Amino acid sequence: MSAPxxxxxxxxxxxxxxxxxxxxxxxxxxxxxxxGYRLPHSCRNGTCRACMTRLMxxxxxxxxxxxxxxxxxxxxxxxxxCVACARSDLRLDAPLAVALRSNCSxxxxxxxxxxxxxDKSVHSLQIDAPSD
Length: 132
Hints:
Layout: E1 8-14, E2 18-23, H1 28-35, E3 37-38, E4 53-57, E5 60-62, H2 71-75, E6 78-79, E7 84-86, E8 90-93, E9 98-99, E10 107-109
Parallel strand pairs: 1-8, 2-10
Antiparallel strand pairs: 1-2, 3-9, 4-6, 4-8, 5-7
C-alpha cells in the first residue's frame, strides 16, 4: 500500500549537503528538479543508466517493474533516481548534482504547493537521407 499523498520524505544530497523533500510517488529526479537541483539524467525511464546514483541510506521503490540495474548493482546500493521513489528519508551520493538556482546553495527546501509542470510526452526524431 502506498503512502498518503500528503506524506513526504527528506532527501539529502552528498557531498554537497543539500536537502529537499519528495512527495509520495514522485521520482527522486523530478523532486530534485522541482527543488532546483539537477541530478545527471537522460532517458527518464530507467534504461540509459545516466542517473545511476549510490543510495547511502534509506529505502526506495521503483515506478517500473524492472529498472536497468543488475542484481549486484542493487545489492551494492546503486539506484536510478529517474524511476525511484523514496519510501523513507534518503541520503544519496551524487557528486555530479548541480544547483539550478542561486538560492539552492544549501539548506532545506520544502515541496512546492504548486509543482512545476513536467512534459512526460514521448518525442521522436526522424532524419531522412538527403535526396540527390
